Every structure is written in C-alpha cells, then in structure tokens.
Amino acid sequence: LQPSFELRFDWFSRPVAVSFPDGAVRDLRDGAELPIWERIILLHHVGSIAPVAENLDLIGFNEVPSGSFYLDAFVRRSHKPLAAFFGQRPGALLDAGELLGAVPAELGDAAVSVPVVPKVVVTAVVHAADDEFPADAKLLFPASVVSYFCTEDIAVIGGFVAGRLIRAGRQIEGMVK
After folding, report:
1. pLDDT digits over 79-133, tens only?
2. Pairing relation of β-strands 110-117 and 103-104?
3. SS3 (DSSP) at 128
4. SS3 9
5. For residue 28, which of 37, 20, 40, 19 has the smallest C-alpha distance?
C-alpha cells in the first residue's frame, strides 16, 4: 500500500495541490480540479522538482532548447496578442499584472513579473507603438526555467501568461466602463 500525500504550492498566485499517487491537481480555494492543460504542466513540474541552482538571468523563448524551432508559433500565441492588447496603452499592463499578483519590472514602456510557480517568474514587457514602430511585446523567463520545464511546457506557460494578462486587462476595462 502506497502512502498518499500532496504537494502544495502557488500556481499563478493561487494555492494548488497535487495529490499522490492519484495525480489529482486541484485549486485549494474551492477544491475544483484544474483544466487539463494546467494539470499536465503542473504534473510535469512536480516530476522535475530537484535542487537546481537558481539562475534569474532573463532569457527569451528563442534561448530555451529548441526554442528557435517553435519561435514563430510562440510569438503568434503570446507576443503578438500582448502587443495588440497593451501596445496602445502599456500602463494597463501594470494594472492587469496587479490582478495576477505580478510586480512591476523596469523594462520597456511597461513590464510586469508574473509568478507562475515557485522559482519561475515570467516577465512580460511591452513597447508602445509610436510614429516609427508598431507595438511590440516579449516574454522573458528566468534562465533556470529549463531545469523545471521542457520547451513545449514553456511555450504553453507563455500562452497562459499572455492570456491571463489580457483577460485581466479586459476585466479592468469592464470595471472602468
């Protein structure tokens, strides 16, 4: 008989638990099981937890192993939507980030560092559109992210960060109207 236990940690600033041996992944606020893609990412994460020298140097997705292979798709799913939503109003990124427990970062015209899981904080950077250049956005990861997640998982996490920031931005717009 295997003993059962659970690991508890924060996922996008919300407490979650991963139970063993069944592998259930639930939100501790309401007990609900997380959506399948989130469960997959978190199960991969707990399978990779080991002592790792933390490297907080920021890297782009193109710098993760095989990241350049997936870069076009990553840019379409994360950078472009962020630029489209926040590029005309970069300050709104700070407000949206606050809803996610992010902290402001000193990069671009606006940037926030979004806590994903312990030791993995993703920084979203927006450069506003001007007369010469269109808006641009980029996600940056701590270099040690490759110790916790494979390239595909990092790509999915980038989409989660972009999607959550945009949803938070829309939520704030709805409050203002």
Report:
1. 999 999 999 999 999 999 999 999 999 999 999 999 999 889 999 999 999 889 9
2. antiparallel
3. coil
4. strand
5. 19
* 57: amino acid identity, one letter: D
Distance between CA atoms of residues 120 and 116, nearest Å: 6
Q: What would the pLDDT profile of 20-76 be if each residue is shown by its tens digit? A: 888 899 999 999 999 999 999 999 988 876 666 677 799 999 999 999 999 999 999
Neighbours of 57 (CB within 10 A): 10
Instruction: Give the up-direction half-sphere exposure of residue 103: CA atoms within 13 A in the CB hemisphere.
Output: 4
User: Within a 10 A sphere around the Cβ of 61, how many other Cβ atoms?
Assistant: 23
Alpha-carbon gap, residue 127 to 135, rounded angstroms? 6
- Other CB atoms within 10 Å distance of the CB of residue 44: 15
Q: Which helix (H) or strand (E) holds 152?
A: helix 151-176
DSSP symbols for 59-119: EEGGGSTTHHHHHHHHIIIIIHHHHHHHTT-THHHHHHHHHTT-EE-SSSSEEEEEEEETT
**142 C-beta neighbours (distance < 10 Å), count:** 21
pTM reported for the whole predicted model: 0.91
Residue 35 backbone dihedrals phi, psi, to 5 degrees: -60, 155
